[in-house]
Amino acid sequence: MILEKTITLMPEGIFNFEAVKSLMTEITLSRMPYAVIDCSGITVLLAEAVSCLRDELDHFQGGSVDIKIINLKSPMILQFQLYDFTVEDRTVTANAGTFKEELPRKDFMRDHEITIICRKCKQNLRVHSKGLHVCPNCGSKLHVDAYGRTKYYEPLRLFQS
To answer: N or C: which end of the chain has fewer CB within 10 A?
Structure first.
């Protein structure tokens, strides 16, 4: 990454849909090939923001940009991982625009439909896309990644003493 060709953005407060739109507009207008988003000033990260960021990166029209999202806190890391971002050392590296087309990536779920058996109620579920899914029969939550692998989430229960 070359510093004179890098835009550094430092959002503060709540990281939501509007914040992502604003950041992506700044990156587009800067016409810089590199962008750094420093998350140290973020107090609340909403899941809608990470979902919106994924969509913005997938449909980016401002050329090609190499983006680093740095200084992620522990709760933020989980949100980014749920939306298929790779997090290493509290940093996410993402590519937007034509640059990302050069990177090979196999997305099994784009071309296939899989059948999953719910662990709780044994209902067959047909899944067409990656992401977070809910069993319509019992409400169990599961995440399907780009390769068709599943991860189940335990429901939270309130304990009474």
So the answer is: C
Taking only the tens place, the pLDDT of each residue in 55-108 is: 888 888 777 888 999 999 888 888 888 888 888 888 998 888 754 334 444 556
List C-alpha distances in Å: 48 to 32, 58, 97. 26, 15, 21
Residue with tokens 């429901």: 155
Q: Are strands 87-88 and 42-45 parallel, antiparallel or unpaired?
A: unpaired
- The structure's pTM equals 0.58
SS (H, E, C) 122-155: CCEEEECCCEEEECCCCCCEEEECCCCCEEEECC
CB 113 within 8 Å of CB 126: yes
Task: Give start-end residues of each CATH 2.20.28 domain in the chain.
Answer: 108-153
| Fold observed for domain 108-153 | Rubrerythrin, domain 2 (2.20.28)
Phi, psi values for residue 110, rounded to 5°: -70, -35
Q: What is 3-102's CATH number? A: 3.30.750.24
